[in-house]
Amino acid sequence: MNPFRFQTVPTVIVELGAARRLGALLREAFPQSQRLCVVTDGFLSKSGLLSPALDDLGKHGWQVTLIDDVIADPPEHIVLEATERARQANAEVVLGLGGGSSMDVAKLIAVLLPAAQSLKDMYGVKKVTGTRLPLVQMPTTAGTGSEVTAVSIVTTGETTKMGVVAPQLLADLAILDAELTLGLPRAATAATGIDAMVHAIEAYTSAHLKNPISDMLAVRALELLSQNLMLACDNGHDHGAREAMLLGAMFAGQAFANSPVAAVHALAYPIGGIFHVAHGLSNALVLPHVMKFNAPAASKLYAELADVILPGTTGSCETKTAALIAHIEGLVLATGIPRTLREVGVKENDLGRLARDAMLQTRLLVNNPREVTEADAFAIYSAAF
Asked: Fewer CB within 10 Å, N side or C side of the chain?
């Protein structure tokens, strides 16, 4: 066995209704603190979904600064403005409450507040030099796994994204409350669920840092996600399915935090950056086509995943791989989300630009089980078109 290191969040609470006693949970975790910065988005803030949590925070003596202007694929200025507001409030604890973007911004606020570093100096792998404020993450979608990852993604230009990857971004506490996901629309449930499946698949087949703990988590994640995705899509108020999706997404997040993602993400990022397609949907659009491209190099691993998701499948590794890809294509079809790039506004003459931009994602491409050239990327985008 190759030596490996596995890092994750030290404490996880999985509890239906945890948001309704959030003040008590945080008081228990941080008995001496008073000033809490809650990072979320405008939709959640206006929806009333957060009201029980905010009420309980007040009952337990928390002075709350609510930052609710996070947007998808948050640009640098949102991060910096939010950090300044948290600084003015003299925040002691930071809580990310929302989807991946809100949790990513919360991570950066927590490391920027005590830091002498600028945000620009933090881009890359292990560039953060300081410590951070206490950090809690509470997801409202079952997809990104951001509550247990050490990655934060920021939009840095008109269409480009940069990542901060550092162990300081791992939270002190992740709280999974499936009640917060009950109202998630079908399309968002589907896209975020496929996103989590991508995390598990890419972690399991990663060319670098693949390890037995990530493998175990990726396998269990895929079991939970594949068995519950359609249940959650068809009945958004199925508590059991929603909790299984949250748990599966977290397991997948823990897996890829230690065995990193690869070409699916590398090819998805330009779609999101240029055409403002949600991250989960961007992943879903290219997933089966990247898997077909990877199959010659990864069929043994894909076959092992097929044994988990499709027990009873027989034949060679290649046969099982084909069955796995067909199953995933069937899942995407059943959810009703877009399946082609043209459905999300991509034109045929955009494919070359997408392929060029994907080549910039070197941090991710090195993890792919098969080398991807610009011509390969163009062929994958063409297949997805």
From this structure: N
